Amino acid sequence: MKYLYLALAIVLEVLGSSFMKASDGFSKLLPTTITIIAYIACFFFFSQALKSIPLGIAYAIWGGLGIVLTALISVIIFKQSLDLPAIIGIILIVAGVFVMNFFSKSSTH
């Protein structure tokens, strides 16, 4: 269940960020409402995941996957572009999450 909670937190964070962009500075009611609800639910599920996943590991996964998924949404939905340094940076973040999860003794899974 701990990784299901973490996955839900990640999806909801990406949803909240995407609708924050769509809210146009919180000037549109529906996207603003979805943003707020998504972030509240995101933090609830993240707090549940933290009951059994170390904070550093959980945050690395949450942040890393959130960055990748949000970047993909920005390209696919919002038609924004990523230059080579941005892509390299995202790859390095993913590599860091991978190293932490598979090689760190801090992880308890």
From TrEMBL:
Gene Ontology annotations for the cellular component aspect, listed alphabetically: plasma membrane
InterPro entries reported for this sequence: EmrE-like, Small_drug/metabolite_transptr, Small_multidrug_res
Alphabetized Pfam families for the sequence: Multi_Drug_Res
TM ranges: 26-46, 58-78, 84-103
Keyword list, A-Z: Cell membrane, Membrane, Transmembrane, Transmembrane helix, Transport
Subcellular location: Cell membrane
Biological processes per GO annotation: glycine betaine transport; xenobiotic detoxification by transmembrane export across the plasma membrane
Record-stated family: Belongs to the drug/metabolite transporter (DMT) superfamily. Small multidrug resistance (SMR) (TC 2.A.7.1) family.
PANTHER family documented for this protein: MULTIDRUG TRANSPORTER EMRE, SMR FAMILY PROTON-DEPENDENT DRUG EFFLUX TRANSPORTER SUGE
Protein name: Multidrug transporter
